[in-house]
Amino acid sequence: MIENHLVVEGVAHQYNFRPENIVQPHIGPMIGEVLYAGHCGAGGPEYALDRKTYMDGAGAETIGRAILAESWSDVIVYHETPIYSQFVDGGSDLAAGLRMRELWPERTLIYGAVAPLRPGAVDRVDELVDVHKVQALKLYPIDTVDGRTLGLDLSDPEVCFPVLQRARERGLKVIGIHKALPLGPGPVSALGLGDVEGAALAFPDLTFEIVHGGMAFVEETAVMLQSLPNVVVNLEGTSFMVNTAPRRFAEAIGAFLAAFAEDRIIWATGCDAAHPQPLLKAFWNFEMPRDLVEGHGYPELTKERKAKILGSNFLRMHGIDEQDLRDRVSGDEFDTAELAPAWGGNTVARVSQLGGVS
Questions:
Q1: How far apart are CA 230 and CA 181, in angstroms?
Q2: At residue 123, what are phi and psi to the nearest 5 degrees?
Q3: Beta bridge pairs of residue 8
Q4: Rounded CA gap, 321 and 325, in Å?
Q5: H or E element: which one contains 317?
Q6: How far is residue 55's CA from residue 295's CA, in Å, rounded to a whole number?
Q7: Burial of 294 (0-12, 13-18, 19+ CB in 10 A)
Q8: What is the secondary structure of 28-78 as a DSSP string?
Q9: What are the boundaries of each domain within the chain?
């Protein structure tokens, strides 16, 4: 919580880059190295896991406590991912999210993964609802099926519309779709936004959440936000830039605010992609550069707008009553202003002090 504002971690993941989880040995380890470099750069060594722990999978409890005990975040939104072309478990396994919800049921929500290009996608929606009680779906725009690497067209009436229709029938309201950020080879066009438009127009009662919004295609994303009221943008990955590339971050968030979308921007760090606390601190203290305000007409990034982005936008999108949530978590182990040490003290900085890193 920041100044009595609830904070939602809009994406949490557990990665597993162990050899037995890698599908393509020339691709999977490279993805791990790229993500670990970003992990270390987002907050510095004092907020970075040691390499082995990160690559092997930090574990649901470690990741969950980084969010709830070691940062200002109050809620975990765990995203399973269907990157089956690269990882046996899809890249971010459902089991970790289920474990977090078992440990902290009042503070955890889950997005379940569906791969529409593979058989059984519609049945998977039923499984996610009936067995795993997920709150939303998570799709990935690239898959490899029968040896062919394909882009997913969210507006395809034969491939994707049956999945979206079943989600709607089962009471799900939000569809998260990975965009902008490449993870392995595939058609760049699939990372763009054109297919989201067709799906959003065909299913106006569903909300389409563009994950990694602002890492690329900033102008297109802003136009879509201005044109389609059922599209929202999730800042996973983009949030890194508040520390690593603040000008780019300002240009992205400014474009979205100028598109009158302050009620449709969702905060996320992708923990354990990064520890959430240094990014939260940087965002809360971030100010829009004067030349972008005066020269581009971008709105100021006020505390009121930050509070919406950090929590209330997500809660409203999912129909969660904020006061009821506050009441349900009041007095639990995380209802404290004291922050625990990052990663329980298991950081690169700590290992280096002990002589474990050269």
A1: 22
A2: -65, -30
A3: 75
A4: 6
A5: helix 313-317
A6: 44
A7: exposed
A8: HHHHHHHHHHHHHHHH-GGG-B-HHHHHH---HHHHHHHHHTSSS--EEEE
A9: 8-353
pLDDT > 70 fraction of the chain, expressed in percent and rounded: 97
Residue 45 CA from chain centroid, whole number: 22
SS3 264: coil
For β-strands 91-92 and 81-82, DSSP reports them as antiparallel
A 10 A CB-CB count for 56 gives 13
- The tens digit of pLDDT for each residue in 223-265 reads 999 999 999 999 999 999 999 999 999 999 999 999 999 999 9
* Count of other CB atoms within 10 angstroms of residue 69: 16
Q: Confirm if 140 and 349 have CB atoms less than 8 A apart.
A: no
* Residue 355: exposure state from Cβ atoms within 10 A (0-12, 13-18, ≥19): exposed
Q: In the structure encoding, which two tokens stand for residue 356, read together?
A: 């474990």
Q: Which residues pair with 279 in a beta bridge?
A: none
135 — pLDDT class (breaks 50, 70, 90): very high
Tens-digit pLDDT profile for residues 178-221: 999 999 899 999 999 999 999 999 999 999 999 999 999 999 99
- Within 8 A by CB and 6+ apart from 353, the residues are none
% of the chain with per-residue pLDDT over 90: 95
Helix axes 276-285, 28-43, angle to 10 degrees: 50
Amino acid at 233: V
- The CATH superfamily holding the domain 8-353 is Metal-dependent hydrolases (3.20.20.140)
Q: Residue 165 has which token pair?
A: 């229709």
Alpha helices in 75-187 (DSSP H): 94-103, 121-130, 161-169
Q: What is the number of other CB atoms lying within 10 angstroms of the CB of residue 262?
A: 20
The pLDDT assigned to 357 comes to 46
**Backbone phi, psi, residue 195, to 5°:** -75, -25
